[in-house]
Amino acid sequence: MKRYDLIVIGAGPSGLSAAIEGAKRGLSVAVFDENSRPGGQLFKQIHKFFGSKEHHAKIRGIDIGEALLKEAAEAGVTVYLDATVTGMYLDKEILVRQQEGMVHYKANAIIVATGAAENMVPFEGWTLPGVIGAGAAQAMMNLYGIRPGNRVLMLGSGNVGLVVSFQLLQAGCEVVALVDAAPRIGGYGVHAAKVARTGVPFYLSHTITRVEGQDQVTGVVISEVDASFAPIPGSEKHLDADTVCIAVGLSPMSQLLKMAGCDTVDDPARGGQVPLIDEEGQTSIPGVFAAGDVSGIEEASSAMIEGRMAGICAADYLGFCPEGEKDAAMVQLESDLDQLRQGMFAPGSRGKAITTTEEGIAISQSLLTRGYLAIDEVDRFPGVTHQPGIHPVIECTQNIPCNPCQDACVKHCIAIGERITALPAVDEKAKCTGCGMCVASCSGQAIFLVDEGYAPGMAAITLPYEFTLLPAEGDVGVALGRDGGVLCPAEIVKVRTAKAFDHTALVTMAVPSAYVDTARFYKSDDAAVTEVEMEG
């Protein structure tokens, strides 16, 4: 039986972060993961993270994963892949299936970072080939380069459903609809807006009644639901689709903790069965810690901080931390975690009907119910201004913990302030140079550069664009509105790519001046054009 000071179960963002902190303090650390490659969800996440610089803001998940793997290797962490932990026992012993054999390992401390599993919803036809979890669709696209389907219906409007819907579009799929039984969109408004402006319709207060097909999905029937979420007879709608993606939440994978005898509790606010842990992440069994989604569903940035906390506390438990080091580190990490848990989407805000922002501005009801800002709502937000010359327009209207746009502007045109959840504001006295760094750095693709006087009768709008087949200067297509509807002809007058933009191209289109406040997406008028995800 092989022994380690610390065993970490799970090589995702939380597990790797925990392993790194333990190894940095001199522990012998082994990480076990059932998958063939480490990184957990990070290598599926090709979008840019929210938060601040300390939280990896504006860095893509896949790049964060690579950085964690490099750091773990440099720290001396041993990572076992294709290694499924099938048992965990009271004396900190685990049983691992490796290469068709069963192997025992023992440690002085264990951190469980097994993450979460996708929830599924049963409906007529839900077992047909073509009905898949959103995470599976992400893996197919972003890990293996396989398109999940041609015409895809997404069930669920939380961040996972919104993000994967956009990635399906990037992969060249048609997203026929985004459906949710809830009356309001569950994820970030900026994620919903970038999906809506491509033309994807949202069906809220709707659910899937049945999936059609014999050997595979050939169509979907959705129905409107009442206040009790029961389908309303006579409200059925048929949609042609060959794939259904399910994004209806996650459940913590706490089975190993329960097997080992750790006290658990059923906590719907944290996703289901979770371990009882103290402020250090330690369970009811001394020396056994839990971190990341297994202890409560949150964003990956929070999971990484929780992992670091667990790694430091495990090292302290084993006597590897100098006096005072743990306490000092925990103060900073708890502050970082607290920042990410603020705003409209904080854990404490779940289930609450928030009607105004922190600044007292009325929340956009159109954004919550249709996925986009209504034209009569836009001007009330501090990121939207009208002024001569080129300037940023920021359609970030919810209190999300994120501030890379503030740091991106060297001319200080954009201000958020010390409160990371504050709405970004444009300083009309500052002179915008049109560099576009704010557009490229916005994790929500919610910033545009606008030149209202580009030419007589014409305005220019610079958009973030993350599809491989870029338009070229001189191309003529159509401008789409926030709702994805066709507004007017548009000519591409500039296309910029740069390493600093991190695979976000800046596409500038010229439109008639009357559409300067409404045109927010460009589409080629050639229906044969297929847009696929930007490659590295």
From TrEMBL:
Domain of life from the UniProt record: Bacteria
UniProtKB keywords: Oxidoreductase
Domain spans labelled 4Fe-4S ferredoxin-type: 422-452
GO MF term list: oxidoreductase activity
A Pfam family per the record: Pyr_redox_2
Gene3D superfamilies referenced in this protein's UniProt entry, alphabetically: 3.30.70.20, FAD/NAD(P)-binding domain
Keyword Heme annotated: no
InterPro entries, A to Z: 4Fe4S_Fe-S-bd, FAD/NAD-bd_sf, FAD/NAD-binding_dom, Metab_Enz_Cyan_OpOx_G3PDH
UniProt-recorded name of the protein: Thioredoxin reductase
Origin species: Eubacterium aggregans
Phylogenetic placement of the source organism: Bacteria, Bacillati, Bacillota, Clostridia, Eubacteriales
